[in-house]
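Thread: quick sanity check before group meeting

JM: Hey all, I'm pulling together slides for Thursday and realized we never actually wrote out the predicted structure for the chain we discussed last week. Dropping the sequence here so it's in one place. If anyone has concerns about the input, flag it before I start.
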Amino acid sequence: MTIFRTLCAFAIAIGMFPSISDAQEWPSRPVRIIVPYAPGGSTDVVARHVSQYLTRTLGQQVFVENRTGANGVLGMEVASKSDPDGYTILVTTSDIVLNPHVYKTNFDALKDFAPVIQLSRQPVIVAAHPALGVKSLADLAALGKKQPGIRYGTGSGIGSGQAIVMQWFAKMAGIEVQQVPYRGGGQVITDLIAGTVQLASMGSTPAMPHYKAGTLLILAQSTKARVASLPEVPTFEEAGYAGLVSDQWVGLLVPAKTPAPIIEKLNVEVGKALADQAVKTNFFNSGQEAAGGTAEAFGRLMREDDAKNERLVRELNIKAQ
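JM (edit): ok, ran it. Output follows.
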């Protein structure tokens, strides 16, 4: 035991891994949050609210860096290979435990990251431009039978959670649809409002102001029960698609081997942010619900979704193009 302690002390002295004092002093310089999607989408909005709060409470700038591409894989890979010192954080969606079942990735979501905290949950929604002429999933299914291959936008790539929800619906409805992937919800909503695409499967955040203004329709939401910010929008199950339930969560992770004291401090400080009334109101207005909880609970959610995604990708025959 004495030899082991001596070796550990020597390793710390030569900088092989962060020392306890390093963790206690964290953060002593700016902290980067990587968002693997374009600005304006659900993940980006959550990350910026949290970063603003942490900048005030931690005494260091916490800034967002958008690293887009390949349904978030590029940004996720950058984060997974960053130093495990607490100065690079990943804020991403549940696609992190979906991508490895669709794409060839250079990271293992469950091994190369340490979960810190779940930030939010929201439904995947089906949004339609009024010109499409549908007001319900029943209308959409009927249109799909008359016009096979209806194009729909997603705020993420092939094989994303948003795409899976639409493909799942299409299979149950007996129709064919064609995905138009974007790099973020902010981009897809621009084209949806313009009518470039007339249908979208996406996170609720970018759609909320346009839905409230009456410039687009929301046909369904993918949660088990209706979320408080969309009380009048039916769930897929209420619309007759039993079992079609899928929450899109946003979570905060750090590279594996990040010191436990840093993870614990992050969990506590971000938990305070999620309990802040202004942050909760901002989340609600964007169609999201603040989450929180322990790192262990978030890790369990990731493992459960990983198993569910493996099954859905196989059953829906989803493959990267």
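AS: nice. The chain has two domains: 2-121+249-315, 123-221. Residues 101 and 313 are 7 Å apart (CA to CA).
JM: adding both to the slides.
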